[in-house]
Design brief:
- The protein has 653 residues and is of the alpha+beta class.
- It contains 24 helices and 26 strands.
- The strands form seven sheets. Strands 14, 15, 16, 17, 18, 19 and 20 form a seven-stranded antiparallel beta sheet that branches. It has a five-stranded mixed beta sheet with strand order 3-13-12-4-11.
- Helix 12 (413-423) crosses helix 13 (436-444).
- The protein starts with a helix and ends with a helix.
Amino acid sequence: MQNQKIERMKELAASLNAASKAYYAQDMEIMSNFEYDNLYDELSALEKETGVTLANSPTIQVGYEAVEELPKERHESPMLSLGKTKNREELRDWLEGKEALLSWKLDGLTVVLTFSAGKLAKAVTRGNGEVGEVVTNNAKVFQNIPLSIPFQGELVIRGEAVISYSDFEKINSQIEEAENRYKNPRNLCSGSVRQLNNEIAANRNIMFYAFSLVRAEGADFQNSRERQFEFLAEQGFDVVEYRKVTPETILEEVDYFENQIEHFDIPSDGLVLIYEDIAYGLSLGQTAKFPRDAIAFKWADELRETVLEEIEWSPSRTGLINPVAIFEPVELEGTTVSRASVHNISIMRSLKLGIGDRIKVYKANMIIPQIAENLTGSDSIEIPDTCPVCGQPTEIRQINDVQSLYCTNPHCEAKRIKSFTLFVSRDAMNIEGLSEATLEKFIGRGFVHEYADIFKLHRFSEEIVEMEGFGEKSCQNLLASIDAARKTTLPRVIYGLGIAGIGLANAKVICRYYQDDIEMMKTVQAEELSEIEGIGEVLAGAFCEFFQKEENLNQLEHLLDEIEIEKETVDETGQTLKGNTFVITGSLTHYENRNELKAVIETKGGKVTGSVTSKTTCLINNDVTSNSSKNKKAKELGVRILSEEDFMREYLE
């Protein structure tokens, strides 16, 4: 019954959050106020009844908070790795006639949660198994962690923080540059869980699945692992999917999981088998590396033998040239595969690749094509000493223990094509009709040598009309889009220049700080720039290095001659909020959303941050009496909490 109520709570939270997002962020009403209030009341009642409050519940608000560093903490007991097998029959033999639980082995970041008096007290990453990083702030914004539970004793559990494939693809689709995209969900999740600002973690849709109960003070589970899982579900946790197995049923259940993997949205690299009898499992002890009460099953990779036909050298905007293996097509996991990235020179050399070699290929985690081994090992691939695009010299650079190939020519067309692709992208100059393929053609014909040339393409209109894929209409549309892009903002320009690490958000921060004064920005020192909140030494160094190069300055000057920067005029007499810092939380009534109010405050010289500190002037929250974390923090620090109306009356009138 408890589990059914918690499932209903999850449904209610999802429906209410969707309705709020539609209403406040998208100006749509998908639910009447009457229906919303009824569902909200039902959720509130269920929270009181079950003692569970989920992290994404609209009845609470988890405050965003930034920390300077993640503290380290030693685990109370070492977190050992599991022994592994790829043989199903070995799993059956390992059982030795006993019952066990078979569950997903999720591929994310292991996190240990501690609850005290029914509240989340601490979250620590696995780290090296003995010492992890404290990520409590970030755990509070995981999508499905209960922040309060009915169990009042101390509870310590382990679970996997994960980001689904669909969320991973969604996040990557918002990143223009292919080389800046995340490699896989596990890397994205690991970085997200360990963010210093939990507002970033909140936007990554991190989920948590419990897979082990370490300690529950005073609780009796009748020596049953399954009862532990049932208990965790009753507390509001999502528990990793599992099946109880015996030697007679285990092979059938492994087949069940294997049939699910193709459509399973959560990254998994295998299964875990653990004895149902807790005391028996613990009595087996452990080796120096592995506990003896559990074993991991890794999916046996589907290997196909094929012939290496070519190594394609693929340059990028940064100058990195990646080797890509081209081989005779083979069927893998239901799809035809003929290419696999070799990643770098070190891996290529370790595989001893040569044209005509017989190689075995597979899909890592059933997804990413990889070379498993080289059966021939001729080791005859010659590393090109010139770039395949520009013909200029290459060099091998070693970073840590990895060797990679780079083009040394700063004017390489490959670098330029990728740079121009960024320059015309949506968040930069936003020029429609200039795909990477089209830019490549224009550069190849000599139409474009630098950014400013894009705004001079009308000189070649007659030739463009005659080009394949173009005509009178498409040429006119392209030129019209270019003309429309002439009026732009300085942050878009700065982002479009492709300065390493400087995204649109960073560009906005820098431009706002220097009040869109490009001359001042050209000569700023890295030490000064790094002091701007959110920039730091690395970005500041890259920014200043870019403007120290005469060629970059010349190109920028030529570009500025072709465009019109729309600069927001700042009326100093209207900077009534200068020197004040505000935090906005909760829903608003007079403004469409928080960003609109934030824009008003910044126009008047004020600053808006995501967390309450001693420097905060006031917290703007229409629910002045709530027990949200931001309200609590404000009260602790003596920071005033004002409703939207009170703020407007005091600061804007």
